[in-house]
Amino acid sequence: MRRCYFDHVATNPLHPEVLDVMMPYFKEDFGNPLSIYDLGTSAREAIEKARGQVAGLINAKPQAIVFTSSGAEANNFALRGIAFARQNQGKHAIVSKVEHHSILNSARFLEKSGFVVTYLPVDKHGIVDPDTVKKSINKETVLISVTHASSEIGSIEPIREIAQIAKEHRVTLHADGVATTGNIPVDVKKLGVDLYSMAAHQFYGPKGAGALYVKEGTRIAPLIYGGIQEGGRRAGTENVPAIVGMGKAAEIAAQELPGRMEHCRKLRDALIDSVLKVPNVHLTGHPEKRLPHHSSFVVEFIEGEAMLLMLSMKGILSASGSACSSRALKSSPVLLSLGVPSALAQGSIVFSLGTDNSMEDINYFIEEFPQVVKKLRDMSPFSSGWGQGGEGDKCYTGG
Amino acid sequence: MRRCYFDHVATNPLHPEVLDVMMPYFKEDFGNPLSIYDLGTSAREAIEKARGQVAGLINAKPQAIVFTSSGAEANNFALRGIAFARQNQGKHAIVSKVEHHSILNSARFLEKSGFVVTYLPVDKHGIVDPDTVKKSINKETVLISVTHASSEIGSIEPIREIAQIAKEHRVTLHADGVATTGNIPVDVKKLGVDLYSMAAHQFYGPKGAGALYVKEGTRIAPLIYGGIQEGGRRAGTENVPAIVGMGKAAEIAAQELPGRMEHCRKLRDALIDSVLKVPNVHLTGHPEKRLPHHSSFVVEFIEGEAMLLMLSMKGILSASGSACSSRALKSSPVLLSLGVPSALAQGSIVFSLGTDNSMEDINYFIEEFPQVVKKLRDMSPFSSGWGQGGEGDKCYTGG
Known about the structure:
Two copies of one chain form a homodimer. In chain A, about 40% of the residues lie in helices and about 15% in strands. Chain A is α/β, with parallel strands linked by helices. The first copy, chain A, folds into two domains: about 5-10 and about 260-395, Aspartate Aminotransferase, domain 1 (Alpha-Beta Complex), CATH 3.90.1150; about 15-255, Aspartate Aminotransferase, domain 2. Chain A has a seven-stranded mixed β-sheet with strand order 2-8-7-6-5-3-4, with helices on both faces. A three-stranded antiparallel β-sheet of chain A has the order 9-10-12. A two-stranded parallel ribbon of chain A has the order 1-11. In chain A, helix 1 (about 15-20) packs antiparallel against helix 8 (about 240-275) and helix 3 (about 70-85) runs parallel beside helix 4 (about 100-110). At the A-B interface, helix 2, helix 3, helix 4, helix 8 and helix 9 of A face helix 2, helix 3, helix 4, helix 8 and helix 9 of B.
């Protein structure tokens, strides 16, 4: 049976060249980067090389890159680090409703710590209106966090416009770039952000390595206190092999990005065309302003979980939303914020493509997907409608 | 030239069998553990196997193990997680003065967050007196954190006695087990701790994997918020290869521990005997109650940094204290807490041994070390004493 890995927003396979450069740091070059002898020095130099490579991918200065263990850690670090550093200036933060759990749950923590948080609404495509940001700012506002693109719906947010507003009001702006870094061009200077989160395994790098871009001059409190690693901003013995791998993955992504985007967009567009031919299936997220490798849908009268399982039996591997919530069995707050009804949000599915996919994968998918939907709908008690006033196939027109 | 790696408290080389079990998770088994298809399931099963292996090493239940990215993260998680969860019951915490920076700096953060922290004194060997702990507890006390053993001085603390006191007063007890786990027998049930930190690279596992033991029923707030990983206690895509490696390293450590301890102790004792034959060199930490692979000294009239460099030119790789502070060029607060004068604390050196060392290494060291000390003292302006009242070779008698 064919295997089509269509879940690149959950995680990516490691680029073989990336693994190659990591290997010496599992073997002979095992030193602690803080040690002053040769073994330590070579590990430290490897980390600094990686810092330059990651900085290069997003047009940052190397010293602005702080390595973390994951995108989630970078997001927690950004929100709590800025909130703690600036709490004497004000205790109001703004986040969008289409953020990842690591942002939304960090925001909840801030609320428990005495902050007031505004959750920005989005339009039916999941896009934040910069005017709403402007209106939400008050004298107490110290922090705004808006994702560059949601991995659930793929929509790309107007970060540049939001950054101008943030700058005018001297509010620190963080953008979650976990889904974007290495997948679309990112230039932190042009974007105008103060902080930007990344995760290596989203661009064919290893798990266990992430980073936070912290613009020079931005005061931030550490999330992990301890030794002097990362300029005192993030303690803990550095995960040298993973950091080295992240650097290499960033370097390769910078080189291959245009080709990757073209490859994925072509496959993705063919996939979207075929899926939307199935009745009562709606695209979620913005039709154009979206990640080139990303497609997401709600399928009426079907539970996402059942669809995932049946597709996986056909070798088609996908997700019903964020991997971090895929086993939580709750309606996605991101989809609800778009106005998708709760029952329909249960039928969400995300197909995210990568360099390892081919048009043969898409053709196989195009054959199998309609059959899976038909089979599940034949078994569904809701197949003739949601049972509420006979709204049937007209219950959702948002996408 | 011979290379003697005597810095196992900084980091360990990876056990070859550990790397072998990690490799599939860098290649074909690259899935996200939260994904519901086969690739996810196999990653998840691998993590649960590792959880059991780590639990087995310290006699814990698997569900009490929360994986983190490092020992430092586990320490931060423990202190802030308990402080936040229990702050309504009281805002007083107790830590010892011989803690790692990740504990001491977390304690400082708690102070900034409205907590009062008592820093427990130690005796000249760096040992905490359980009676002092008892006297420090008040109605506000919610948390005690004492290291099981300091990696700087090797002394093993009376955790069991402290645990009894903590239990009587319903205070949560955390022990930093980063230096002990996999190096001496650890039984969290016998110790009676509520929380216990570990780091894989301290027992021939990979960097990038640590864990916190959280006794069943202990309420703790996450340090990293987000998805539902680790039972909602630690978010972020799991570093599957590193976790798998930690599990294997724990399994091997459990099997090999008696042999490792005997091997290291024998070499270490020979090393200590030879070092103490050099005039004006003092052992730091407890002479008997110490980690079997650990020896630490202060060498009068010499700066530790110079000693490290000259030893490294001879292929002898060591540290002047905690790796996390080795480049900070400050007197170690741990040594100062033992009553070591500040100037003398600059001459600190730690030799920590491992399975990769042999008696040939020690014999080589025994030849070289006295010459290095002599050479440095010949160059030192302090070689005839510290220049303060001619205390000379009698300035320190603590060790």
